[in-house]
């Protein structure tokens, strides 16, 4: 079992990254060989302020370590340091089909009506993601629910490559398959953390309103204010879990509560049913502060020592390259480029 996953350094590390991905990363570190990548090349598919980008790369790395990922046990690095990602990505551009990319819902959502003005990179982004995963022959990819379609695309690309080059693969490797078909692991505590301002939108570092998210480095007052002002409806807390279906903001707060406290949705409803939102919000604020603020403090400490973070990334890149370089070399041989 080899695990690969990535997080984009496109702004603040927030609760969605933490509950949707990092908590899962931490629990996998004792069960498998894990490779965790700060996907900086993905982040530049939309404009990134150059003076912020490197700081954001450091922030994600510090977030990984502060959340409990051991840089000795896991390979932690940033994507642009390992050229194999970009090179394999080009090769896979030639395997993937236009029709497959045209079905990607994330591109449609991000581009909206503005498709013609988006970067080509945003469109081919899932192919770079496939290259990230296939360059390591990763077997499992822990992601949030929204990335499932991209993992399926990675499988399709791997499958097509294996079929297109079947004879060469047989000849050169004595195996019938070359790339491994990766499986998504969607069992983070909360597969989809939503915005605090709109329960139908994903919590995101690119949301213009900082009130829409809890950043891992937020202080106690910020967390208190953001939860207090988070959008709710005018009802009371129900006891029946099916009521959450039509109340997205309530569902989101209960999901966050559940992710942090590790209690089931139903248990939480049992505790708060018949109450106003204010009580739920007060308890949620307390557990969030208790879990998130120590991680934020640790992140700030780590970030204040940039040479330490750089050494983690450099060491990780060397280890990552030791795996991906021979896989790319073999890929090129299979194609006939070498
Ligand atoms: N696209 C992912 C996201 O936005 C990030 C990502 C890039 C990724 N490469 C990956 C996740 C490889 C898993 C595996 O969340």
TrEMBL record:
InterPro entries: aa-tRNA-synth_I_CS, aa-tRNA-synth_Ic, Rossmann-like_a/b/a_fold, Trp-tRNA-ligase, Trp-tRNA-ligase_bac-type, Trp-tRNA_synthetase. Pfam families: tRNA-synt_1b. A motif ('HIGH' region) lies at residues 9-17. Its EC number is 6.1.1.2. ATP binds at residues 8-10, 16-17, 144-146, 193. Catalyzes the attachment of tryptophan to tRNA(Trp). This is Tryptophan--tRNA ligase.
